[in-house]
Amino acid sequence: MRERGDHQCFHEPFGEAWYAGEDARCPPEHRLETVSGLTSASVRRRLDAALADGPVFIKDFAHYVTHLIDDDFLAQFTHTFLIRDPAKVLPAVHDHWPQFTLDEVGYAEQRMLFELVTERQGAPPPVIDADDLLDDPHGVVSAWCAAAGIPFIASALSWAPGLPDDMDWFEGGSWHGVLEKTSTFTRQPRDYVPIDHNARLRHGHAACLPHYRTLRAHRLAG
Asked: Could you count the other beta carbons within 10 Å of the beta carbon of residue 34?
């Protein structure tokens, strides 16, 4: 979306408030140093101000905004959803945070938001499965653009390696080390423990899988 050049892009602005805001809501053990003046409300004001200059794109997690969801919030955005198999997500989270909780991966919250949006607009919003995106970037992104009501720009499927400044607020960008080296959509080597490694992963997978499958039934095809 940054590569397109026609949207002002924000990377997890509500997530930063969730971890480092004056009203942070993350588990205490993962709270970051508080940023003075940063709150969920200040994020909304910053996005409203950006909208005055043109289209805005936001990538964020549903569990960062559950406390904000009301009719105004649902109406303010065109909601689309990116999903990923929990068998791949949970081992990666476990690698960073072995004692992670389910409200830090957000599958239930994502399904809740998806169902609220579906009910409000009378049809499911666009859903992209990460595996489909990696298998067919051109086809899936083209389908997503059509569903989201924006033109498809094929040249935006590649970019210069590196990270934008707003992607380093979480521990120096520790979650984005692989992304920093990429220049297009590509599968990366995975060296994480398998789901059956321990009870926390097995329990987490069993809890998250039904939510993932519910959204996956509506995924876009390339």
From this structure: 13
Taking the CB of residue 151, how many other CB atoms lie within 10 A of it? 9
Contact 19, 25 (CB under 8 A): no
Residue 172: what pLDDT? 43
The residue to which tokens 């993350």 are assigned: 26
**Residue 76 corresponds to which tokens in the numbers above?**
């303010």
3-state helix, strand, coil split of the chain in percent (to 5) is 55, 10, 40
- Given this model, what pLDDT does residue 165 score? 74
Enumerate the β-bridge partners of residue 219. Answer: 127
Are 76 and 48 spatial neighbours (Cβ–Cβ below 8 Å)?
no
pLDDT at 173 over 60: no
Structure tokens at 189: 């080597």
Calpha distance 71→75 (Å, rounded): 6
* Digit-coded pLDDT (tens) for 64-111: 999 999 999 999 999 999 999 999 999 989 988 888 889 889 999 999
Distance of alpha carbon 59 from the chain centroid: 5
Domain edges within the chain:
8-216
Residue type at position 143: A
User: What confidence tens digit (pLDDT) does each residue in 6-32 have?
Assistant: 999 999 999 999 999 999 999 898 899
